[in-house]
Specification:
Radius of gyration: 41 Å
Helix content: 10-25%
Strand order of the largest sheet: 8-9-7-11-13-14-15
CATH architecture of the largest domain: 3-Layer(aba) Sandwich
Number of domains: 5
Structural class: mainly beta
Number of helices: 11
Number of strands: 44
CATH class of the largest domain: Alpha Beta
Strand content: 35-45%
Distance between the termini: 93 Å
Shape: flat
Length: 730
């Protein structure tokens, strides 16, 4: 049977302390609304298998809001996948602004220089009267989770009152909020009686994270701890949001006793208690160690819906006076918006610390259970910063000290000022001492300033540009730069070919000005291959590698100066040419051996120089439970490694008994052995040959090449190496 949900499961908005908490009575045969938390991913199939009707699957927490038969609740609590099953409690309004509160926290002192402009504040409540003349310009959207639509219109009044405290507009009518330039988002989770479910509050927090809110204001609460609500608050806090909640109106006037309300009591949330006009906490304001700040909450005058709602009969239309920690909460939420907009580069943790350290201490010295760190102080938390820094200019084009081949260049620069903004009316530009009227395009924190010259500049002319501007604080800047008009391509001379081998050649030339280097070449005048070097020099050298032996190559050279002027020299269309040397083949024999595992029982490296019956014998050594031979031979060539075009290695040997032999070549590029062969070798000589046409990695800078021989078995054996050779072509 679905049990009645008592006040222990009620989450309250923190309106007037005289309001009672309604009780929702279940029908015996009905399913019970719950929130099921999972240890890993939410399992909708599991809920449905237990006869559940799913309301939503959260993504901010691993949980599902649903309705379940009561027997299924006990079964799910025992399921190893489930972390908790808790009642989807009811939420109700608790709370009652007079602009004295805005004045008391000195928010109006901040307004001349900071109104919290564009800071996104989510009011998780009964909705907002978004057509109210004191709220309509700041309202930017939201969602109604009670009726599941995108029209979060307030049908109770509480949310509109809280929204006005945060951001009622500075428009000479009605009231002014703590942050009159902040953006308001209505996240309706409570119905026209000020009641709703915890599951909707979690959805509201999830929506706030997904829609990149910066501040969440929650004038609501429950005396019952909720794991799902805590997880949602923690995840929103970890996502960078600042969460503020009313501490609750269940106080007994005794600071020695604690009254808990959630979400205010969670570590991730700023809990706000109430004060009256004498800076004293009313008896009904909750106390406890979780209290973090205090703010005005008695007789607070603020906006109410302009149409008839639940509170209208008691408090009237458009504006009214309410009391409660519900009214205290938005004072702090609005102050958070001022801090964020103040230009202080603070994380949400830093914002919270700023509020704590600037609060006006009330009650006992230091943090206490009634006022927390004290009365929130907007003026101290979001002080005016005096801007003495002028705008800056950057990204000038053509860049300072550069060259351009455009005789009528487009001249541009970006002027920015992140502190006060750039005063567009003060931007000026002169080109060669002549004032011009540039085109201004808005960019982040400033303007892109651009002008295209009407007439042509002369080749070699140095063009001087000056821009000036002031920021909105009156700080002036002047920026000067110059560039050179270059309409002439480089002059190329002394094209020469040298260092010709069977696989490479070096092309050199000079230019009369710094420019890059390009050689276009091929075995025909089609010149399909390019070798570039972007370095700007006057003496150019490009080495061509990987060429074919005994082959004629055609080429041209090309240089482009800094301005982009290009000159090509192809020997007046005849094309330069050279012929690579004929490839030479040479064979080397081992000049030494190195034993890693095993011992030489007879012979030495010289025995490997001939393919005969004289063997270098290497006896195995014990390694753990096995017998192993591991050794390599090596040669050192005298040719330049980069000129070697191919490498062929031959190895011949046998064993005292059949063994699996592995051959490796050392890769100097990766400093590791690379396997080139693996096979069973018996008691007769077995010759193995391996070749590569990309030998560069296998030859050290000093010309060394290594061949490694490895074998292992459970019993001892001897490796008989007869012959090894290294044949190169270059």
């Amino acid at each position: 049977m679905r049990k009645a949900i008592t006040s222990a499961f009620i989450a309250c908005l923190i309106l007037a302390s005289v309001l009672t908490i309604s009780v929702v009575t279940a029908q015996p045969a009905e399913k019970v609304p719950v929130i099921v938390g999972f240890k890993d991913k939410p399992d909708a199939d599991l809920i449905q298998a237990h006869g559940g009707r799913i309301k939503c699957v959260y993504n901010i927490i691993p949980a599902i809001a649903c309705e379940l038969p009561e027997p299924a609740i006990d079964a799910l609590r025992k399921n190893p996948k489930v972390a908790y099953v808790e009642a989807d409690g009811v939420v109700e309004a608790i709370g009652e602004v007079l602009p004295w509160g805005v004045d008391r926290i000195d928010a109006e002192v901040v307004h001349p220089y900071n109104k919290g402009t564009a800071v996104k504040v989510a009011i998780i409540d009964t909705g907002i009267d978004y057509i109210h003349p004191d709220l309509n310009d700041n309202y930017k959207g939201g969602y109604d989770f009670v009726n599941n639509d995108a029209d979060p219109k307030d049908d109770h009044g509480h949310g509109t009152h809280c929204a006005g405290i945060v951001a009622a507009e500075d428009n000479d009518i009605g009231v002014i909020g703590v942050a009159p330039g902040a953006y308001l988002y209505a996240v309706k989770v409570l119905n026209n009686q000020g009641s709703g479910y915890l599951s909707n509050v979690v959805l509201g927090i999830q929506w706030s994270v997904a829609n990149r809110m910066q501040v969440i204001s929650m004038s609501l609460g429950t005396s019952t701890y909720s794991q799902s609500l805590k997880d949602a608050c923690n995840n929103a806090y970890n996502a960078g949001l600042v969460l503020v909640a009313a501490a609750g109106n269940s106080g007994d006037g005794n600071p020695a006793t604690d009254e808990y309300s959630y979400p205010a009591a969670y570590d991730s949330v700023i809990a706000v208690g109430a004060t009256d006009i004498s800076n004293t906490a009313p008896s009904w304001s909750n106390s406890g160690p979780y209290l973090e700040l205090a703010a005005p909450g008695v007789s607070i005058y603020s906006t109410l819906p302009t149409y008839r709602v639940t509170l209208t009969s008691t408090y009237g239309y458009s504006y009214g006076t309410l009391s409660g920690t519900s009214m205290s909460c938005p004072h702090v939420a609005g102050t958070v918006a001022l801090v964020i907009a103040s230009g202080q580069t603070l994380t949400n943790v830093g914002v919270r610390t700023r509020l704590q350290t600037t609060a006006d201490d009330l009650g006992p010295i230091g943090r206490d259970t009634v006022y927390g760190y004290g009365l929130v102080d907007a003026d101290e938390a979001a002080p005016q910063t005096v801007d003495t820094t002028p705008p800056t200019a950057s990204n000038e084009k053509p860049a300072d000290g550069t060259y351009t081949k455009d005789a009528t260049p487009t001249i541009s620069v970006e002027i920015i000022d992140s502190a006060s903004g750039v005063d567009a009316s003060t931007i000026s530009m002169t080109v060669e001492g002549v004032p011009v009227t540039p085109t201004l395009t808005t960019i982040a924190n400033g303007y892109h300033v651009e002008h295209t010259s009407a007439g042509s500049f002369a080749d070699g002319q140095i063009v001087d540009v000056t821009v000036g501007a002031r920021d909105n604080a009156g700080n002036a800047m002047t920026f000067v730069w110059s560039f050179t008009i270059d309409l002439t391509a480089p002059t190329i001379s002394a094209v020469t070919t040298s260092g010709i081998t069977s696989s490479s050649a070096t092309i050199t030339w000079t230019t009369n000005e710094a420019s890059d280097s390009v050689v276009n070449y091929e075995t025909s005048t089609a010149l399909g291959t390019t070798m570039p070097d972007a370095t700007l020099v006057t003496s150019h050298s490009i080495k061509l590698s990987g060429l074919s032996p005994g082959t004629t190559y055609y080429f041209e050279v090309q240089s482009t100066d800094e301005a982009g002027n290009t000159e090509t020299d192809n020997d007046k269309g005849a094309y330069y040419r050279f012929t690579t040397a004929t490839e030479t083949e040479k064979t080397y024999f081992p000049s030494g051996v190195s034993i890693t595992k095993g011992t030489i029982s007879s012979g030495d490296y010289s025995y490997l120089g001939k393919d005969d019956s004289l063997y270098l014998a290497v006896k195995s050594a014990r390694v753990g439970f096995n017998q192993v031979i591991d050794w390599y031979n090596y040669v050192k060539i005298i040719e330049t490694p980069s000129e070697v075009t191919s490498l062929t290695i031959t190895y011949d040997g046998k064993y005292s008994a059949s063994r699996t032999q592995k051959l490796y070549i050392y890769n100097f590029a990766f400093n590791s052995w690379q396997q080139i062969d693996s096979r069973t070798v018996g008691t007769s000589d077995t010759k193995i040959t391996w070749s590569t046409t990309s030998p560069a990695s296998y030859i050290s800078v000093g010309g060394e090449i290594r061949l490694r021989v490895y074998a292992s078995a459970t019993s001892s054996f001897v490796c008989y190496a007869d012959f090894a050779s290294y044949t190169i072509k270059y």
